[in-house]
Design brief:
- The chain has one domain (about 20-150).
- The chain is built from 2 helices and 10 strands.
- It has helices at about 30-40, 125-135; strands at about 20-25, 45, 50, 55-60, 60-65, 70-75, 80-85, 95-105, 115-120, 140-145.
- A 6-stranded antiparallel β-sheet has the order 2-5-6-9-1-10, covered by helices on one side. A two-stranded antiparallel ribbon has the order 3-4. Strands 7-8 form a two-stranded antiparallel ribbon.
- A hairpin with a 4-residue loop joins strand 5 (about 60-65) and strand 6 (about 70-75).
- About 20% of the residues are buried.
């Protein structure tokens, strides 16, 4: 019996996108407002991203530019969940303790607070213009482009 082998490597092209990492201490809604103002976009909050059966939840803001057929996504990199943990030692007082667990969407970039994912690959000059506009926001400490081909956990950036 003959064996047929299908090679699907060329069938699925990798989606091209621009990824920008941002360091800041702002709340997500405030950052979305400032990005809307400085970049001329209209990010709005959508349902949160849930990973590990609800153990980690990341806020996400999206905007679809129908004119240029580009989707902009602002997603938090940090998720903090509070759980009660039983304490083993015997005490007269409360035997439960609140533990806050921190998880990251992209573990390679634990210091990044937010990612701006633009589902289109821009020219270098357009990407530099976007970065310069973001860096002009005084509340953002720094922002830089991230090479998506080097990411180990790039599957976490698939939102839909």
């Amino acid at each position: 019996m003959a064996v047929h082998k299908l090679n699907l490597d060329d069938a699925f092209d990798e989606v091209l996108y621009t990824l920008i990492g941002m360091h800041c201490t702002l709340e997500d809604y405030r950052l979305a407002y400032l990005l809307n103002k400085h970049l001329g976009i209209a990010l709005i909050r959508t349902s949160d991203l849930d990973y590990n059966n609800g153990k980690a939840s990341y806020s996400i803001y999206e905007w679809e530019d129908e004119k240029q057929l580009v989707t902009w996504s602002l997603v938090s990199n940090i998720s903090k969940t509070e759980t009660l943990q039983q304490i083993d030692y015997k005490s007269l007082f409360d035997t439960q303790q609140n533990i806050i667990k921190t998880s990251h969407l992209l573990t390679e970039y634990k210091t990044v607070n937010y990612f701006l994912k633009i589902d289109s690959e821009f020219s270098f000059s357009k990407e530099k213009y976007i970065l310069d506009s973001i860096l002009n926001i005084s509340q953002i400490a720094t922002a830089y482009s991230i090479d998506s081909s080097q990411l180990k956990s790039k599957d976490n950036l698939i939102f839909s």
